Here is the input.
Amino acid sequence: MPYAEIEYEVADRIATITLNRPERLNAFTLVMRGELIDAFDRADADDDVRAVVVTGAGRAFCAGADLGAGPETFDFAVRERRHGALERFEDGTPRDAGGTVTLRIARSLKPVIAAVNGPAVGFGASITLPMDVRLAAEGARFGFVFARRGIVAESASSWFLPRVVGIAQAMEWAATGRVFDAAEALRGRLVSRTYPAADLLPAAYELAREIADNTSAISVAAIRRLMWSGLSAASPWEAHVADSQIMYAVGTTADVAEGVTAFLEKRPAKFPLRVSADLPAAVPDWP
Here is the structure.
């Protein structure tokens, strides 16, 4: 399906999602929210997609929420009058739109790589947190600027950010709300590596192809869920239970047979199983 505010392309078993409002620095809207959720649904349902790369069109990654509505931007009653009924929790509280996107990314069955090509502030920084690897252009800038706008950390970033960078670093960035460069993001472990701008997307695709060319889709999906679930496991003993259940479920599958046989025969493996049909029921899931 065509999108208005993002682009979605699949090539070489890699889906690329491009935030595509360059004239507004790819600022987030409710239209973009729906399109992003649909794009991740498509990627999960497509067995030809083995990894997802997310980047921005033009000179920005994402400048955060579109503030074009002025002081009413975060007034949910005004938003509902203009855009229709909002998703709500059982107690009637409207759901934060950015959080519905980050939680959908967290549920992804495919590994997600952020290629942060320029400014990523507010939601633009938060959306990267449930992604598995964050790569950045050397000129990129980041900011968890919520306190400077009189709002709070959104998009479930109060859960994700401390787990990605640690509580002290998370609080420094969130309490000051300052914008910082890619070098500081690298030192603070928000990003894994930085690159000259021209090398960023090639590096993201190289990593995505390494996954696509060498691994079992079932294994990667299960490992992704185990890793993220393990961040809130009560103990390693709880993680051991989850590991054991999935090891038991996959131990006799065709992917395991192929992986072991390929190793013994010293050849590349050709894994036959598909995430859409063959993911074991024991793999953790979220609502």
Summary: The chain has two domains: 6-211, 216-278. Strands lie at 6-11, 14-19, 51-56, 112-116, 120-121, 133-137, 141-143, 179-181, 193-195. Residues 216-278 form a domain with the Lyase 2-enoyl-coa Hydratase; Chain  A, domain 2 fold (CATH 1.10.12.10).
